[in-house]
Write a structure and sequence with these properties.
The complex is a heterodimer. Chain A is mainly alpha-helical. Chain A is built from 16 helices and four strands. The chains are: A mainly alpha, B alpha/beta. The interface between A and B is medium-sized, with 22 and 26 residues. The structure holds adenosine-5'-diphosphate and magnesium ion (MG).
Chain lengths: ~400, ~270
Amino acid sequence: MSLRKLISIWLFVVSVVIAGMGFWAIATQAQIGYWTMAGSLLIISLTCYASGIHHYVTKKNRKSFLMLFYGSVVLTVAALSIYIPSVVDLRPWEIFARIPDHFFFSMFMVVIGVLSSYLSFRPFYDYKKEGAQYGAYYLLHISIFFTLLPLFIIIFNIITRGMGGITWEFLTEDIVRMGEDGGVYPAILGTLAMISLTAVIVLPLGVGTAIYLAEYARKGLAVRVIRTAVNILQGTPSIVHGLFGYAFFVLIVFNGQKSLLAGALTLAVLTLPIVTRSAEEALNAVPGDLRDASLALGATKWQTIKKVVLPPSLPGVLTGTVLGLGRAAGETAPIMFTAVYFSGAGTPSSLFRPIQALPYHLLSLYRLVGYRDVEGQAWATALLLLIIVLGINITAIMVREKYRQRF
Amino acid sequence: MIRKLKELFKEEQSCQRIEMPIDKKMLVEDLDLWYGKTKALKNINIELEENKVTAIIGPSGCGKSTLLRCLNRMNDTIPSVRVEGKVWLDGYNIYDEVTDCVDIRRKVGMVFQKPNPFPFSIENNIYYGCQVNGIDVDKGGVVERSLKQAALWDEVKDRLDENALSLSGGQQQRLCIARALAIEPDVILMDEPCSALDPIATAKIEDLIDELKEYYTVIIVTHNMQQAARVSDYTAYMYLGELIEFGETTQIFENPQEENTERYITGRFG
Ligand SMILES: Nc1ncnc2c1ncn2[C@@H]1O[C@H](COP(=O)(O)OP(=O)(O)O)[C@@H](O)[C@H]1O
Ligand SMILES: [Mg+2]
């Protein structure tokens, strides 16, 4: 192995380690001192100088000045950061925050570490375009990693903290002593009943709207108005849906009584845009050729929709619906005014009676933390909710992959 | 309720009828067509002979497909289209207010440029037309007859329940022809049926067209003049939305009356 490759690998390893240290320091709020940071950056910049000089001497490759230049930039950053005050006060700019210097030092380590590890590919491939390409792929992978990291941290956190709380008792009993004991059996049944009912309500409405938009409506003003309305509905915060459900379904339709049906209707309004949109997309994905073929055989428009357009788009419609339901299952705001009690509702027995549901149970327990010993139960509830929602989404994706239609 | 009344009212208007000239299947009379504000067909008059093959040729964009789609009212599916004039089929005007597009399309079948089988099994593709039109026939019988007429039977008889999309392009196009034949139309319209196919598949379809004219009136759009010369008995030459010349194929190719036709046929433009 040539010296050039050794230097490149050394630069890569060092930069990754330094970036990792910086990241770890940010995550744990460990205090990185000036000399740790400056020392790290010094190693990087010296390696860059070595790489650049070696290249220039052996290959007379002018592009290797890139490394010398970069090494100087790193060195300058390290040198100038001594002037960073120990606490940067942002209050004069009306931002009420104070940033300690070690935060900047850790940031420099992360940024310069990632940049240098990217650049280390270029001398390795002799400053060819190939080096830039590998470096770019590497950066992409890093960014994917940073995107997925929070997800894994959340899931890992919830699993480790919630596992212990999931016991047979937790799954089969009602709340005891404000959630300190007992379990969430009525809330599980309540959530399942609620999303099933929501599905029954939203599916015909959403698919009907989508069929109208995709097949019947002339592409004019009316369609644009309906589509905009659907989009606005989708952008509306769920708490607004909750208040609407309370004002309309609970107060006007059901005489002030919270109920399973009122909650499901509210959730149906919430998920309607998701279902309509995905159904419309699925319908539009069916090629126009097939519609023409059917019409040319003397089929009516409705026969064409029923027999040619709808069957291949059904998996798409169902996937969209299930994804919408996954969202509905985890929502608290739309149901808290319309359908749920924290305790006392029992297992769902009637469409017109209130229920208990997992997201609201979680919210209520969270409010009790500090007053009562409910934290374990709260984590367990969170885990259960996560399992249900992820389960729904995974089912949706599997259905889509299995029945995906290719034309 | 209101629609019912309207229908009753319409029944009372007597449907327009004319006596068809002998041996003619369809007559196009003073046909104009607009896409929005642009006029795509200008005063077309043409007489289509029964049990013969008529080819429509012309440079692309001259309105061949548009004219063809007028013959089974497929243009009704495009919202911006407006049609004026008359098209007579067996003495009835298909653009009469009382005629139902669905009936017209049962009698005038169509094969499209790009093969477009349904993503169903082969036999269900064939049977679809009978199903939607409520034609009560033996499924196996219809499938076999249509596939044999379309010269596809031997290739697919052992895999009738396979998805039609698993067939090759040429087979798919013959399946589409078989599908059109299954409901026993009188006229078959073909819009460049070979343009997406290789030469061998093309030759098969050309042979097929020759056999079909024994039972059906065939109208075929093609941009391939050799093909028109090979398969057709009559040829119509169109240019910029107008019908320039119409006559027996031999006359059009050997002795065109119009200079425009001659230039196109000898390949001096287009
Ligand atoms: N759906 C449509 N909307 C608007 N204009 C169209 C449409 N289809 C065809 N046209 C126009 O009508 C003319 C004739 O088209 P077409 O019948 O498809 O020609 P050809 O089949 O001879 O190539 C062309 O100028 C084309 O741009
Ligand atoms: Mg065309």
